[in-house]
Amino acid sequence: MRITNNIIVQRQLAGLQSNLAAIDNAQGQVSSGKRVQVASDDPAAASGIMTAATTLRAIQQYKANVAGATDRVNAEDSTFQQLTDLMTRAQEISVQEASATASPATRQAAALEAQGLLDSAVQLANTKFGDEYLFGGDNSTVAPFTVAGTGLAAAYTTTSAGGNRVVSINDGQTMTISHTGTQAFVASGILDSLAKLTGSLAGADVAGINTANTQISGAFDNLQGLVGDTGARGNQLIMTSSTLDTVEGDVTSHKSDLQDVDAASAITELTSRQAAYQAALLAISKSANMSLTDYLK
Fold first, then answer.
1. CA nearest 269: which of 15, 31, 49, 48?
2. Does 84 or 255 have the greater pLDDT score?
């Protein structure tokens, strides 16, 4: 094969271009700290990096869901604590006004207090959580209960029958994050027992007061079951949050191993590439300055 000057020049230029590309890649690694900057640098690693990035985005969403669920659970727990105090007072009233020492006058006064407890329970049932109703379930823009009338004539009405609010808290794992108004205040017997107590006191119905006392005791026990369930949800969220933190750390470390460059190695590589480029330039310079006499020597 006949080697011409044009072939020599083309090969020299191709060598320079290759060296420049290697220098650019080395400089990019040093400046960005990333070994894999485009998929062609390492296709297998690039695929792993994209998978890790997708996993990390999912984890961030799960963590956001867990944080929101934790806030709702804490708000529900606080509401149940207030409701526990309220039901404790209702029990005290029912016991006191069913006794022989009570009179029509004390029962009438107690009826007003019992109505106040019922009103407070309905208010707790309509607790707002941001722009939503805490016990609204998946129909959280509508107040679960309304109250018609005032004083002893007041009565509550269920207005919302939303289902449970469910969120994803981990891969393949969902969680019911709050109770509905129906579960917490109707099925538990809380509102009905308070209404029974109020009506019996207003009518000085001793038998009715005793019945209300039994109902209130049952409702109180049901409430404690709700408190325990809420506490269990809170504990589950704490454990899930810890698990997500651990997984996030592991995935982040794996992604870093695939993508990040060793700084010392990258600087050494860049220095080596720069030296090779300088050597190539020197070789080209010398060959370009050779005369016909030099070739004949």
1. 31
2. 84
* Number of alpha carbons in the 13 Å side-chain half-sphere of residue 43: 1
Chain centroid to Cα 132, Å, comes to 17
Write the pLDDT tens digit of every residue in 201-243.
999 999 999 999 999 999 999 999 999 999 999 999 999 999 9
Among candidates 174, 187, 183, which has minimal Cα distance to 69?
A: 174
What is the average per-residue pLDDT within 139-152?
Answer: 80
Check: pTM over 0.85? Answer yes or no.
no
**Residues ≥6 apart with Cβ < 8 Å to 132:** 140, 141
Closest CA to 119 of 145, 81, 89: 145
The 3-state DSSP class for residue 267 equals helix
* Calpha distance 140→132 (Å, rounded): 5
Helix, strand, coil % over all residues of the chain, rounded to 5: 75, 10, 20
Number of H helices, E strands in the chain: 8, 6
What are 155's strand-pairing partners? 148
Q: What are phi and psi of 98, to 5 degrees?
A: -90, -10
Instruction: Give dist(CA 268, CA 210) in Å, integer.
Output: 88
Q: Which residues of 129-143 are buried (b: 16+ CB within 10 A; e: fewer)?
A: beebbbbbbebbebb
Q: For residues 31 and 38, what is the distance between their CA atoms, to the nearest angstrom?
A: 15
Which is it for the CA torsion 219, 225, 228, 230, positive or negative? negative
